[in-house]
Design goal:
Elements (H helix, E strand, L loop, with lengths): L13 H9 L1 H4 L10 E9 L3 E8 L2 E8 L4 H11 L2 H5 L2 E2 L3 E5 L4 E5 L6 H6 L3 H15 L8 E2 L2 H9 L2 H7 L1 H16 L8 E3 L8 E3 L4 E3 L6 E3 L1 H18 L4 H14 L6 H17 L4 H9 L5 H28 L23 H11 L2
Parallel strand pairs: 4-10, 7-11
Antiparallel strand pairs: 1-2, 2-3, 3-6, 5-6, 8-11, 9-10
Helix pairs in contact: 6-11, 7-9, 7-12, 7-15, 8-9, 9-12, 9-14, 9-15, 10-11, 10-12, 12-14, 13-14
């Protein structure tokens, strides 16, 4: 097999570098792919951190994940969940761990075959999408796998604030709005109760419909925390679909209703709204990131920066709308929360002091 030349050149990922230089068969002889053509597709990539490859050979299909750091914890999670009798019999699953290559910082996983929730929504199957996601939460709530790092309100706000510099560089008014909203979110953070196993970044593309089972992939940020953390991110990502694609709004509404019906009594509604708002703030920074900009430019848009700013603005406005009942309940006031936020105007002035530092200081106090 010839070396795979069209992969990113990233020396921080030794496994990816080996596959690029030698090809899959030589870099990972344990896969036994010496005979016949081997197809390699880059499914996901974060420079300097990780890459996910889909590898096909004949009828075989696996996922290879390459990391800059040791993926031992993630590998242990896959092994533990697949050894859990509940997971095997309750209609949920995660990819099986085939093996790990320590030297190359690689893990090789079995492939889960099925459409993602995002694909179901795009096909107009919103009710099915919501049911599949709800099934995961109902069954996963029973798993006694409470290990990993803490993932709660402080984590959600820290991840949301990471993109504030990009917001400020593109439009200071956007950053002022995001910071003001985040400060109120910090003040109104929910209680977290007993911890559960959480994915940490549960997007619509991470949940798969496997027929009689629900699969969840890409567990590199897993930890222990409230179920509302994952549910809020899930709802935020499907809301983003409706914002970007108006024709899919009805399918998204169906998915939201089916999900809420399917998780009734399981999730705290106030905490869910809080985490959905925090997730929307986080997603609002994505279009203005380096990777987000590259994706928009790759689509050949006339003004990708303007599109990115527009998307960020809409997601921040949605976050304020979602969080409004939480803020009103917390402070027991009647005025809409929008009256307490800066007006979203291009190039709105920002106070000289760094508001992000104030938010970070507040978050440190709730760790």
């Amino acid at each position: 097999m010839k070396p795979t030349l069209d992969l990113p050149d990233d020396p921080a990922l030794p496994g990816l570098a080996a596959i690029k230089a030698q090809g899959v068969a030589r870099a990972i002889p344990s896969l036994k792919m010496d005979e016949g053509p081997v197809e390699v597709r880059l499914c996901g990539y974060t420079q300097g951190e990780r890459a996910t490859l889909e590898v096909r050979a004949g009828s075989g299909r696996v996922a290879i994940k390459a990391y800059a750091t040791n993926p031992a914890a993630e590998a242990a999670l896959y092994k533990a969940l697949n050894a859990t009798e509940l997971a095997a019999q309750s209609g949920i699953c995660v990819p099986p761990l085939l093996f790990r290559i320590r030297k190359l910082r690689l893990i090789v996983l079995g492939w889960l075959e099925g459409p993602t929730v995002l694909h179901l929504i795009r096909r107009g199957e919103g009710e099915r999408a919501g049911f599949v996601a709800a099934r995961w939460f109902r069954r996963a709530a029973l798993l006694d796998q409470r290990f990993g790092r803490r993932r709660g309100a402080a984590y959600a706000m820290r991840k949301a604030s990471e993109g504030f510099p990009e917001l400020g560089a593109a439009d200071p008014g956007l950053k002022a709005f995001a910071v003001a909203l985040s400060k109120i979110l910090v003040r109104t953070r929910p209680g977290e109760g007993s911890p559960h196993l959480v994915h940490g970044t549960l997007y619509d593309r991470h949940i798969l419909d496997l027929g009689d089972r629900t699969g969840v992939i890409d567990w590199q940020r897993f930890g222990r925390g409230p179920l509302e953390l994952d549910a809020g991110m899930f709802l935020a990502t499907i809301s983003r679909v409706a914002i970007r694609h108006e024709p899919l709004r009805e399918a998204v509404s169906q998915a939201q209703k089916a999900f809420r019906d399917g998780t009734a009594g399981l999730l705290d509604e106030s905490a869910l709204a809080w985490h959905e708002a925090a997730a929307l703030v986080r997603l609002a920074t994505k279009p203005l990131s380096i990777a987000g900009g590259e994706r928009l430019r790759a689509r050949g848009l006339a003004d990708p920066q303007a599109v990115a700013i527009s998307r960020a603005r809409t997601l921040l406005e949605e976050a304020a709308l979602v969080a409004e009942p939480v803020f009103r309940e917390f402070e027991r006031i009647e005025p809409r929360i929008r009256a307490r936020l800066p007006v979203l105007e291009p190039n709105a002035p920002v106070r000289a002091e760094t508001l992000k530092d104030q938010v970070q200081s507040s978050m440190e106090r709730i760790e």
